[in-house]
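Handout, page 2. Input:
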Amino acid sequence: MKKIDLGQMIAVLANIGVITGIVFLGIEINQNSNELAAQTRNSLYEMRANLELDFQRNIGGIADIYEKIKAGEALTGS
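Output:
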């Protein structure tokens, strides 16, 4: 049986630690990417919901504009 050098054992353990750290870093980056994607989807959903609410609140004004366009009237700023 060969006698294992202490320095060589420390180097092997250090290399294993580096590889383990890289694996955990990859997992953390993946989790962060997933979280950012979820936040982006949520922001888009909220913006769309707010846009739909604004549209519903202003439906009378939009209907008036549509009727003017349909009747061929000029649209004026007021």
